[in-house]
Write a structure and sequence with these properties.
By secondary structure, the chain is an all-alpha fold. 58% of the residues lie in helices and 0% in strands. It has one domain. The longest helix is centred in the N-terminal third of the chain and has 31 residues. The termini are far apart.
């Protein structure tokens, strides 16, 4: 009996590590808050459907905000709860990942690591997403996300709990492999939630700050995936579809080619001399 109690005490003791609070609790809360901060404003825009932004809508169909708002919030809450419990149960393993709370690295190290996380996550997500489109996994898992054919920002996390857990695992993979500082991981989580909300916003606005990220093509890329159900499997960068078998969604390349180039500034008209001046 004493040995059982000692084993229980030693197991519980590992949860007293401050990293458990920062990695499990704080990261979950940050993920929730950051996604809602990015998604709710765009969801409000989709609901109001202002006339001034209709020219930037990717699809001509109305956003189904009224139908999917509550189910999206319910899925979001359930998925985050299960994900948090998953981190709690796997903490004896996760705590060996190398994610630390030591001295904060230089800013350029943080930037370089986040860049690595983006590339790695996108590569892994491409293959995970493509695998989820195989018949059995699509029917039993991924079809939940594809119930929404005209996405709005809040639907970025509307998915089966298994898919949510897999996606969350990929997000943690980069920080775990590189032994990142917890603050670096937090910045990466915020960026990843920006990606999730932006990719489902339904608006292709030219002043989208996410377009400052090199090689990012905006929400049009993932919107075509929801519309066509095939292709455009990466999360952020479109080059992977060209690299691995030309898996672009039907019509996506035509859409990109049809976009007008940025117009050159029109020169001011020069005043013409009047008849009396000639």
């Amino acid at each position: 009996m004493d040995s059982v109690i000692d084993t229980l005490k030693s197991t519980l003791a590992i949860y007293e590590d401050e990293r458990f609070f920062f990695i499990a609790v704080c990261s979950t809360l940050l993920s929730i808050v950051s996604f809602l901060a990015f998604a709710l404003p765009w969801t409000w825009v989709a609901y109001k459907n202002p006339e001034s932004l209709k020219k930037y809508r990717i699809q001509g169909r109305d956003f189904p905000v009224k139908r999917w708002l509550v189910p999206s919030l319910q899925r979001f809450a359930l998925n985050n709860l299960v994900s948090f419990l998953g981190v709690v149960l796997s903490w004896p393993l996760v705590r060996h990942s190398g994610i630390h709370t030591g001295p904060l690295p230089a800013w350029y190290v943080i930037v370089a690591q986040i860049a690595c996380f983006i590339v790695l996550d996108d590569f892994l997500y491409y293959w995970m997403h493509r695998t989820l489109h195989t018949p059995w996994l699509y029917k039993h898992v991924h079809s939940v996300h594809h119930r929404i054919t005209t996405p709005f920002a809040l639907t970025g996390n509307y998915m089966h709990v298994v898919e949510f857990m897999l996606t969350s695992t990929l997000v943690m993979t980069g920080p775990a492999l590189l032994g990142a500082h917890v603050v670096t991981m937090w910045l990466w989580i915020v960026f990843r939630q920006l990606e999730a909300a932006d990719g489902h916003s339904g608006y292709d606005v030219p002043w989208n700050p996410a377009l400052l990220v090199p090689f990012y093509k905006g929400p049009v890329y993932h919107d075509f995936h929801h519309r066509r159900f095939f292709g455009n499997y990466a999360g952020f960068f479109a080059y992977l579809d060209k690299l691995f078998g030309g898996t672009y969604s039907k019509g996506y390349e035509d859409y990109r080619r049809a976009q007008p180039p940025v117009a050159a500034p029109v020169p001011e008209p020069q005043p013409q001399p009047s008849q009396s001046q000639q």
